[in-house]
Design brief:
Among the domains are: 94 residues, no CATH class; 235 residues, no CATH class. The chain is built from 8 helices and 25 strands. A hairpin with a 5-residue loop joins strand 5 and strand 6. The termini are far apart. 28% of the residues are buried.
Amino acid sequence: MIGRLVIRHLALHPIRSLVFVGGYAAGVAVMLALLSIGEVMVEQSRDEEWLGGGDITVVPAGVDLETLRTGGAVFFGIEQARFIARSILGGPRLAEGVQAWAPWLDNRAVYLRRDSTQSPVAVRANGLIPTAAIALAATPEITAGNFRNSASDRRWLDPTPLELYSELDRFHLPPERVRGDSTWAEWHYFNLLWPDQQRWLYLSFILGGDLLGKRWGGLVLASYRAPDGKHLSFADTLGADEIRFTTDAADVSFGPHSVRLRDDPIRYEIDTRLTALKGGDPLDIELEVRPLPNRYFPPAQLTASDSFVSGYVVPALRATAAGQVCQGGRCFPVEETIAYHDHNWGTWGGVAWDWGIAHAGDYDVLYGGVHGAAAGEARRRGARLLGYVVDSLGVAAVLEPRELVYSGAQTVVHDGEAVEVPEQLTWTAAKGADSLTAKIELRRIVLSNLTLGGDAGVYFAQMQGSMNLTGRIGGQDIQAEGPGFFETYLLREKGEP
């Protein structure tokens, strides 16, 4: 009966019927859309990790987003969060695209108690920096108190140059698990290359031994390539009572030798007088080393086992140096000189490494890897390696070279013996759309005899040369070349001294 009425109505009033059906369909469609939006809003309101105010949320790499929605974020943190926030999200490279950024801890598990007599209570806490949250339009509702930065908030967000470099370049005490390890060592390292590339200087301030006990001390060591091409070594050894250092600053005093970090402009002031190891005039060094902005590698620590710790930071991938180096009454000015500064700490028993830094055009390229075993080609193939590139805007690329390939042969005379060493080093690295190939000519090589791990004899090779860099980073083709310093370990053949 109803069907017959519908057919009769359509036949008598076709236009009216079509309008009615169309309006009904539109109403149903709108209702479905509203219900869908409402469902999404309800889900978002229940989502523990929904942070309002931003367009993008940065989370740890490899984390399942569903884990975040179910409260799993209480167990996660972002490594190098300060570096990522300051130098990448808040750095000059993204300045046009990023209007505001804010670090955020949401629903983090913490334990509280009023005093030592009470058991701790598990709670969830949020953490943020007030001015950053305001800039991101993501401020919480404040029911009491104030909402402004503390001194530590300000240092986290925007440290002064002195605060930044003190944070990067501070000294350390051995962690509990390696306390008493006599192979613990930590050092400042500087190198300088004069504009003619015929003279250079390596300078290290080294702490070593059981720093929390009585058996430790220090060494100031310099290796200087003089204008006549000779490599000269200088040193001074000091006892623990002559050394001053701190775990919250870069300053050190080794008796009369010192490194001081100064502000406005940020610079390292270095003053040392060292005795020649093989006789001859002492070496007097007075330098100012000024890091270039945005060119640094943040502190990183590798812990391969309970007994192995290796830490590394590069406060100055490129710096300028001024001052003088004097020997035998002759002083050589240091001006328009490229400098580099890094800082190492850890346990060094049986440890080897491959390392290099080059200044190719506007790019500074750092590569390397630390190996807890004696040197050899098999070690290089199995080790994880880092390739790190910066320019005037900060980090340009972080890559992982697949392999370090040494090739060619040249002869170096060491302690009266002819030693065969490589002529070239090549590595290639790619990540996403970025790729680099570095071809390094190893021109001037200095060898030292070492023993790493039992009977494994090696040469430690310090090399000066040039790097040719080709590839593509950030959509830009790269072709640049420049000087650098490189280090590796070479196995001594059986029968060699």
